[in-house]
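Figure 6 in text form: structure in, sequence out.
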């Protein structure tokens, strides 16, 4: 069935990450919705996720993943050597999330942000939930 990735639609790093994932997910396993979209808000509510969460979110098989756990879920489905990063699951999340939290806290300062969510090309628009 696939998985859904919820991302910060105004974050430049997050938008680049979505494009990165799309290029390495040729079968279209992942679908996307921004946290700011109506679909994103509905999914947050449906899965009982706080709107205050500052993380990429993966919803897969009715389970919700946050922070580094979400990133590792994504890596496991990408083509190429990205699957190798899943070995990091052996580390406790507190260690994995330390670096994740540093980047998340500074993402707007380091990478900037947009005034609105990205507009996908016609080719990849079908990968985005409305």
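Output sequence:
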């Amino acid at each position: 069935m696939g998985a859904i990735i919820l991302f910060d639609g105004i974050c430049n790093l997050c938008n680049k990450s979505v494009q990165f994932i799309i290029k390495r997910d040729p079968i279209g396993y992942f679908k996307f919705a921004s946290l700011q979209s109506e679909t994103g808000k509905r999914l947050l509510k449906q899965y009982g996720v706080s709107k205050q969460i500052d993380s990429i979110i993966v919803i897969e098989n009715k389970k919700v993943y946050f922070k580094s756990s979400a990133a590792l879920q994504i890596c496991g489905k990408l083509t190429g050597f990205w699957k190798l990063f899943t070995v990091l699951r052996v580390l406790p999340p507190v260690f994995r999330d330390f670096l994740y939290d540093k980047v998340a806290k500074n993402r707007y300062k380091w990478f900037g942000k947009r005034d609105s969510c990205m507009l996908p090309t016609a080719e990849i628009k079908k990968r985005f939930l409305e």
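Caption detail: The mean pLDDT is 88.
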